[in-house]
Amino acid sequence: xxxxxxxxxxxxxxxxxxxxxxxxxxxxxxxxxxxxxxxxxxxxxxxxxxxxxxxxxxxxxxxxxxxxxxxxxxxxxxxxxxxxxxxxxxxxxxxxxxxxxxxxxxxxxxxxxxxxxxxxxxxxxxxxxxxxxxxxxxxxxxxxxxxxxxxxxxxxxxxxxxxxxxxxxxxxxxxxxxxxxxxxxxxxxxxxxxxxxxxxxxxxxxxxxxxxxxxxxxxxxxxxxxxxxxxxxxxxxxxxxxxxxxxxxxxxxxxxxxxxxxxxxxxxxxxxxxxxxxxxxxxxxxxxxxxxxxxxxxxxxxxxxxxxxxxxxxxxxxxxxxxxxxxxxxxxxxxxxxxxxxxxxxxxxxxxxxxxxxxxxxxxxxxxxxxxxxxxxxxxxxxxxxxxxxxxxxxxxxxxx
Length: 401
Known about the structure:
By secondary structure, this protein is α/β, with parallel strands linked by helices. It has helices at about 60-70, 105-115, 125-135, 155-160, 165-170, 180-195, 245-255, 260-270, 270-275, 285-290, 295-320, 330-335, 335-345, 355-360, 385-395, and strands at about 1-10, 15-20, 25-30, 40-45, 50-55, 85-90, 100-105, 140-145, 200-210, 210-220, 220-225, 325-330, 365, 375-380. The chain has an eight-stranded mixed sheet, with helices on both faces. The protein has a six-stranded mixed sheet with strand order 11-10-9-12-14-13, sandwiched between helices.
C-alpha cells in the first residue's frame, strides 16, 4: 500500500508518499503561499527537485497539483490515484477525545472542530486539508494522527494545573503536550537501537528545534511533557518564551499598551532565543554570532541549554531514574555543541559522552561511552513515517499503536 501523508497549514502543505511495504519515500514536497500566488515543490525519489510557480487559490487546488505531479507520466511515482491506499493527516489537537489515531468520519471532524479553541491556528488548517482530500479522493480512507494523542497517558498529577477544577471541567484547561508523534517514534526507535524491550525503559526524548519539547516516556507511555495547553509552555524556543510567570504577561501588556492577546503574541512570536539575542531564532545564526563575540547570542544559548537540563533532571526524578536520553529534531540532531553542553550538566547521572560520536550530524548514533550509566542517543525523527505506520495499522484493521 502507498500512503499519502499530509501536513496542512493555513497557507502551506507538506506531503510525502510512502510505501508501506518498504517504508521508502517515493516522493515528497510542499505547497507554499496557498491563497497568495502559489508554489509547488515536488521531488521524486532519486530525481531532481521540481519547482512550479502556479496559482493556488485554495488548498483543493494545491492538493490537485500534488496529485497531478504524482501521476505525471515523466516524473510521477504512481500511475493513478488507485495506487494511494490511504491518506494520513497530521492533526495537532485531539483534546481528551483522542488517545490514538483514528479513521476520519464526519463525527470525528466535528470533535476536532470542537477542539479548535485549544489550537486555533492549527486545527482549522488541518481540517482544510482533510476536506480538500475528501473532495478529490472521496473513495480513499482518511486517517487523523494527533500530536496530542501520545500524551493522553499522562496521569492527572502531571496534566492538571493548579487552577479551579471547574475550569478543567468546563473549558478543558489542562496540559496536553505536543510533538507526540515525534516523541513516540523516537522513543520506540531508541529501544530498537539499544535492543531493549520498549516497555522496560525509562526514556527522556528532547525534541529540540525552533519549537522544542521534552517528554518522559516510562514503560512505553508518556508520563509528562514540557508543552502544555498550548505549545507556549515549557522550554525557551526559537520565538516562544516557554515557562514564564503569568504576571509577566500582565506587566508587558500594561507597559506596552497591549491587550492580553497582544501580550501572548509577544510571548509566542517575539520571544525565545530570538527575543533574548536580538539576532535570530535560527540556532545556526546564534552559534555564529556567539563565536564572533555577541554576548546576547551566547546568553540565549545558555538559557536554552539550561532549560533543557532542568527538564531532563525533573523527568529523571519523576520517573525515579532514566535509562536513555534521546536528542532529535533540527537542533537535537545536528548541534553537537548543544548536546555536549546539556550532557555536561548531567554528570551526576553517570553520563559520559563520546566526543567523536557527538560530532556526527543528522544520523542515528549512540553518543555516550560504553561505560556511561545512562545511554545517550541521537535519533533523527520521522513524523511522516510514523503517520504512515499509524495509517496502515488502522486501514488494515490492526488499530492504532
